[in-house]
TrEMBL record:
Source species: Brevundimonas aurantiaca
Source domain of life: Bacteria
Keywords, alphabetical: Cell inner membrane, Cell membrane, Chaperone, Isomerase, Membrane, Transmembrane, Transmembrane helix
Keyword Nucleotidyltransferase found: no
One Gene Ontology molecular-function label: peptidyl-prolyl cis-trans isomerase activity
Location of the protein in the cell: Cell inner membrane
Name of the protein this chain belongs to: Parvulin-like PPIase
Pfam family, one: SurA_N_3
Length: 635
């Protein structure tokens, strides 16, 4: 058999077979490994729907513009990423695309006539002279918003599909009456009860703790009482000579002014208010009401819209380009026509115009002088740093090098790794100083550290005080007070358990209260509302409404421990609770439907196997990708 195999391996048929095997590896293996790396990378993948880096960047840009408009100030991508908004937006878009992929396959497909009808309701797409739909105006208006006709039409289809799905779920859902009845029953239920409170005075005298007890208490609370590690260090500070304000030449002042005069001028700003409506018809009614003299607040209240106030805002700070163009084309007191904004239709009313002012040399002189002086002072400081580093390189000690460079050496008090002094107060120093001190061993000396803002320092670690428990002599007085409080709490808990046990065994609660000289409180018809809570306390309500009829409760009180009994429970009056149950039913239905829709959309996204890549999203926004991780599926 082996001989036959060797003979076959030398034949031309074996060579042909090896070629076929190689081709099969290319076809099968490459499809899995090589081909997968070809084509564009997607920030979001959701079945037949996806979003690439450019699309994500454009969509996130529109989010940023809306946030800028609401905040009334410029907002950068870095600001939003610091608040983790990019991840929340990414997750919501992943779920949305996953749902839309499922909806299309499930047959939720808006007709083309609906999309055309919606597009033809936007006046910006029509010729202002002929009144006819203008394809060029259509494409131009969309280009201003970084959109294409295909993108708008897809957005409208997605919007219709989502709205119709939500409407279908809501139409078929209604909360059972029992839900409202339970809510109303709990709100109007009343209870009868009796209770008394045992106080620390009833715990008896607590003798002073012995040293053995306090030492044991220290060991029991070692994690809380252990002092952190402290470090003692000397810092070489590089600073300019005091009172050495360098002179600034006129030539440098003029040169800097010419370089910065465009940014030194004051742009025109406007004070205005905008109201954004969901439809053009609603926006036209708002515009008419504003022109009729109604205040934006009244108009907003009548239309359930919150007006957005912009005070002395430059055009660059208005997030929506169409809104900005409308506002900066008005005269004070005028109201704009409805504007197709990024979200809905905006109506603006201009109240004041603050003209811009071009920069002048005299007006900017002091600012430029201060700026140039600050640069010169930083230069003086860095010159000392260079002189110090040269001395250290030459072999001189830290103290000699600092003296030669004109730097100061400051001995710092003991401090912790997070920059706290022994009294708990923070040490006023940059965080880099603490990081540097904790990177050194005892006697170690650091290189010069740049703390930013033209500040430099070097550190020598003089000593280390290890973490340790305090001695009894150091903490005797406060420790004795804590030990006493603990003993009182223990005695109160034991006493409360004893008294509550006597009531549970059948003794009358009034007799039990008399046995400890505690006044008994009796209440009937107690309801669970804010006024009752303020009058009786949270502990009483938790006790009365947390137990069944005849049961005993023990709850923390305002000054001790409450011992009580629920004597009776009175159901809500149907005549009073019934209307509330029906009033609460629509709200309960709405909350249930919202939860249902959210759950169903998440399930649809999961069925579409929707996932996203945070690293690619960050790259799309011009930032470095975070450490790579598997693509995150929709939750």
């Amino acid at each position: 058999m082996i001989t036959a195999f060797r003979a076959f391996s030398r034949s031309k048929w074996a060579a042909a077979l090896l070629v076929l095997i190689a081709i099969s590896f290319v076809i099968v293996g490459a499809r899995m490994d090589v081909f997968a790396n070809l084509g564009p990378k997607h920030v979001i993948d959701a079945g037949d729907r996806s979003m690439n880096e450019a699309e994500f960047s454009a969509a996130f840009g529109r989010v940023r513009e809306n946030i800028q408009q609401q905040a009334g100030r410029p907002v950068t991508n870095e600001d939003l990423i610091a608040e983790n908004i990019h991840v929340r937006f990414l997750e919501s878009q992943t779920e949305q695309l996953g749902f839309l992929n499922w909806a299309w396959k499930a047959g939720i497909r808006p007709g083309k006539e609906l999309i055309v009808k919606q597009i033809r309701q936007i006046p910006a797409f029509f010729n202002s002279v002929t009144g006819q739909f203008d394809q060029k105006a259509y494409e131009s208006a969309l280009a201003q918003q970084n959109l294409t006709p295909a993108m708008l039409e897809q957005d409208l289809r997605d919007q219709y599909a989502t709205e119709h799905f939500n409407a279908a779920v809501f139409a078929g859902a209604r909360a059972p009456r029992i839900y409202g009845a339970l809510l109303a029953g709990a709100a109007f239920e009343s209870r009868d009860g009796r209770w008394f409170e045992i106080t620390p005075a009833m715990a008896g005298d607590i003798p002073a703790p012995t040293d053995a007890q306090l030492n044991a208490f220290i060991q029991e609370n070692a994690a809380r009482l252990r002092a952190p590690e402290f470090r003692m260090a000397s810092v070489v500070l590089f600073s300019p000579e005091p009172g050495a304000a360098p002179a600034v030449s006129e030539e440098r002042i003029r040169e800097r002014f010419e370089f910065k005069k465009d940014s030194l001028g004051k742009p025109e700003t406007r004070t205005f208010v905008t109201l954004t409506a969901p439809s053009r018809d609603a926006a036209q009614k708002i515009a008419a009401a504003l022109r009729a003299g109604q205040s934006p607040v009244d108009v907003g209240r009548a239309n359930s819209i919150q007006p957005a106030q912009f005070d002395a805002t430059p055009r660059s700070a208005v997030g929506d380009a169409a809104t900005a163009a409308a506002v900066f084309g008005l005269q004070p007191g005028q109201v704009s026509d409805p504007v197709q904004a990024g979200v809905g239709f905006a109506v603006a009313k201009l109240t004041a115009v603050q003209p811009g002012q071009p920069a002048s040399l005299e007006g900017s002189r002091e600012q430029i002088i201060q700026e140039l002086r600050a640069e010169d002072i930083k230069g003086q400081t860095y010159a000392k740093v260079e002189k110090y580093e040269a001395a250290r390189t030459a072999g001189k000690s830290l103290a000699d090098a600092a003296r030669e460079a004109g730097a100061r050496i400051v001995d710092l008090p003991p401090f912790t790794q997070d920059g706290k002094l022994p009294n708990g107060q923070p040490l006023n120093a940059p965080p880099q100083l603490f990081e540097t001190a904790w990177s050194l061993t005892k006697g170690g000396e650091s290189d010069v550290v740049d703390a930013g803002q033209g500040q430099y320092f070097a550190v020598r670690l003089n000593d280390i005080r290890p973490s340790a428990l305090p001695t009894l002599a150091e903490v005797r007085e406060p420790l004795a007070a804590q030990w006493r409080q603990r003993e009182i709490s223990r005695r109160l808990a034991a006493k409360a358990e004893e008294l509550a046990g006597r009531v549970r065994q059948g003794q009358d609660i009034a007799a039990v209260a008399r046995s400890v000289n505690a006044p008994l409180t009796v209440r009937t018809g107690v309801v669970r509302d804010q006024a009752t809570q303020e009058a009786l306390g949270q502990g009483v309500l938790q006790g009365l409404f947390g137990q069944s009829k005849g049961q005993v409760f023990s709850q923390p009180g305002q000054g001790g421990v409450l011992i009580g009994r629920v004597d009776d429970i009175h159901a809500a009056n149907p005549a009073v609770a019934g209307p509330l149950a029906e009033q609460a039913r629509p709200r309960i239905t709405q909350e249930i439907v919202q939860a249902m829709v959210q759950t169903e959309m998440a399930a649809a996204a999961k069925r579409s196997k929707a996932k996203h890549d945070v690293g690619l999203a960050r790259q799309a926004l011009g930032l470095s990708a975070e450490p790579t991780a598997p693509a995150a599926p929709a939750q």
